[in-house]
Design goal:
two-stranded antiparallel ribbon, elongated, 127 residues, mainly alpha, 3% strand
């Protein structure tokens, strides 16, 4: 739920409020792309983490997560670092994303969707 609040705040900043701050105009289709990107990213992130092999039961044998853990263990002399990439992804696999992680994923999804919408609009304007 918190990620939706962040998305609304992000989108509300995009509209001209009549203040002296710099602003830009944005159409509703762009708003839909941004919101859709944010929500899709937040929904897809836990699914992707689980699909990699980071599960509540631990790292799945033979999965991408096992390969990633092996690679990081090799880099770190046989152990994985506490608070590192593997530990963070495993934590997300067990308990899900934290509010801060959801906000970061939502912001990234919104940004990617905005760039995709801009690219799509630019390429359709050229034809």
């Amino acid at each position: 739920m918190l990620h939706l609040v962040y998305t609304v705040l992000l989108l509300s900043a995009a509209f001209n409020t009549g203040s002296s701050l710099p602003s830009f105009e944005i159409d509703w289709s762009t708003v839909a792309w941004i919101a859709g990107g944010a929500v899709t990213a937040v929904v897809a992130a836990p699914i992707a983490v689980g699909a990699l092999g980071f599960t509540a039961a631990g790292i799945s044998a033979g999965s991408g997560a096992a390969g990633l853990m092996s690679a990081f263990a090799g880099i770190n002399g046989g152990a994985t670092a506490a608070g590192g990439v593997v530990a963070t992804l495993q934590s997300a696999g067990v308990i899900g994303l934290t509010a801060g992680a959801k906000a970061a994923v939502a912001g990234t999804g919104a940004g990617v969707a905005y760039v995709a919408k801009s690219y799509r609009q630019k390429s359709s304007d050229e034809h």
